[in-house]
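Blackboard transcription, Thursday session:
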Amino acid sequence: DTEVTQTPKHLVMGMTNKKSLKCEQHMGHRAMYWYKQKAKKPPELMFVYSYEKLSINESVPSRFSPECPNSSLLNLHLHALQPEDSALYLCASSLSLGTGTLQDGYTFGSGTRLTVV
Amino acid sequence: QKEVEQNSGPLSVPEGAIASLNCTYSDRGSQSFFWYRQYSGKSPELIMSIYSNGDKEDGRFTAQLNKASQYVSLLIRDSQPSDSATYLCAVNKNTDKLIFGTGTRLQVFP
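(Written on the board underneath:)
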């Protein structure tokens, strides 16, 4: 299995809703990531989990809450989002060697297209 | 100065030509370099990685790295319309974090 699976593929939510994005990989990768990408912009790092521990939080607003229940799963809990949070949310994983050296880059999931209304 | 810089394009090349995509980076400690292809509305797909100075070839793709000049490039030979996409350069410096450039949009016309 060489895939990163993200669900749902599309999500429309109101500003008062609570929703979660899910990501799953079975490649034995020990680092997992959430990225946000707006149209015509590069992916923007949000969070990094390394060996199931949050290692990087790029000053993301608290309305985004990540969770890593185990080495294969990564969730992003969403609450009280704003319309400007509408974007493509990408999950990725990599074979972290603990030293932080990326061997083969990231494998990205297909993303969740989020629209906040 | 941005950490990873790319010309946003579009770079337009005719079918069958060589497309040359360039990327510069600011941190001399960078160790790993990647090229991703992203079609509109899709997620990035890793197409090349390179770690040592010189060339690395994979099919129609060649990545070139020059650490002294802090420069990495991607050559696409025999360009096809299906190669039309945004190409993202990404750089890593011994952390679990990739730094992406803004991407170069490539258009291959028949």
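Lecturer's comment: The radius of gyration of chain A is 14 Å.
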